[in-house]
Write a structure and sequence with these properties.
- This protein is α/β, with parallel strands linked by helices and about 140 residues long.
- It has a single domain, classed as 2-Layer Sandwich (Transcription Regulator spoIIAA).
- It is built from three helices and six strands, in the order βββαββαβα.
- The protein has a six-stranded mixed beta sheet, sandwiched between helices.
- The two termini are about 25 Å apart.
Length: about 140
């Protein structure tokens, strides 16, 4: 079963549809893209879409593309840590995004408290991130 195009729809915001989506699975790297203001329900839906594919394919690295990312919606709903159930299937995670989000992304992904390494890369470092994941 291919992963490309599994999309978690977002509500319309300022005339632009936002989305969180799985955009590929190549060479053991599952790639997901997030943009706009991330909502707890969108993150949960993305994890729900990813979980059976990780279980089906075995261990994988994750590449998260934060393109046009505006942050996390303030409020409740972020206490659900069930996404960590996928941890046994993840070898490494690379996040590519604007450096202004690096510190918050590290905290949000529980970097240093998960059983796999997580590294942050700038938008121009896609190949460096892929090489790190492949190493």
């Amino acid at each position: 079963m291919g992963l490309t195009g599994v999309r978690v729809p977002r509500e319309e915001k300022e005339g632009k549809t936002m989305s969180a989506e799985i955009v590929g699975w190549n060479d053991g790297i599952l790639t997901a893209r997030i943009s706009g203001m991330l909502l707890p329900s969108e993150l949960a839906a993305l994890h729900t879409a990813i979980a059976p594919r990780l279980a089906e394919h075995g261990r994988a690295c994750m590449l998260i593309l934060a393109e046009g990312f505006e942050g996390w919606q303030a409020g409740e709903g972020w206490s659900d840590m069930s996404f960590m159930e996928n941890d046994p299937f993840i070898e490494k995670m690379a996040i590519i995004g604007d450096r202004r989000w690096e510190e918050l992304a590290s905290a949000f992904t529980a970097k240093g408290m998960r059983p796999f390494p997580i590294e942050y890369f700038s938008p121009g470092e896609v190949e460096l991130a892929r090489a790190w994941l492949a190493a």
